[in-house]
Amino acid sequence: MKKIIALLPVLLPFVLFSQVQLVSTDATKYYPDNTRITYMQLSQYPVEVDFLKFVELEVLSDTSIQRFNLSKDGKTCFYQAQKDISEAMVVEAINDAYYLYFATQVPRLSENDSDKTVANQGSADFVKRGVLNEYFICWFTLDMPDDNELVKNIISTFKESGFISDVNYNGNASFEVYSKGVIYPDEIDALLVRWDVAIQKESLK
Q1: pLDDT (average), residues 70-85
Q2: pLDDT mean across residues, the chain
Q3: Could you tell me if 104 and 34 are in contact, meaning their C-beta atoms sit under 8 angstroms apart?
């Protein structure tokens, strides 16, 4: 009985929140290397910065999951993993990390550790890159109609990604993206999968 009472203060923060739940799967794209990228919406997600960083790193500790990223508001995420890793399995991994975070009161993580989310970049790269002060810049054109509503939604998704600092739209489906770290094409692809929009080959090398 004493052990149960002693555990209550530790478990209380976890009990105060509902578990993260899958709301919907917006899109999934399968690749020839037997991996998949899935974009999905979640609910009941705390949005503390330390929590988001911890969960990303904990989920990525599973070697079957190559990339995992949560939006700043905790409502959407995408992951790249072996094709047999389902959405339910990823949500379960998120909740395991959720429990671990609150049960152990994890201290603030080093910003350097968060770089793991982009450690597994693909072989393709952007043709045009640059650096301005502390920002990395990449330019690319998407294979999409010049539709104002679609452009607005893509810009919003880019800004909520957690790793893109700013976006300029230059017309004709051309974008200029600013970030604190180097961004690779497959990260942009993952954000676009819900609309089945791709980067034009001319923007890649």
Answers
A1: 84
A2: 79
A3: no
The candidate with the shortest Cα–Cα distance to 195, out of 25, 26, 24, is 26
The CB-side HSE value for 13 (13 A sphere, CA atoms) comes to 12
Give the whole-angstrom CA distance, residue 196 versus residue 191.
10
Which three-class secondary structure state does DSSP give residue 52?
Answer: helix
Query: What top-level class would CATH report for the domain 2-117?
Result: alpha beta
Q: Token digits for 102?
A: 């609150």
128-203: which CATH architecture? 2-Layer Sandwich (3.30)
> For residue 20, what are the contacts with CB-CB under 8 A and spacing of at least 6?
42, 43, 44, 45, 91, 94, 95, 98
- Where does the pLDDT of residue 13 fall: very low under 50, low under 70, confident under 90, or very high at 90 and above? very low
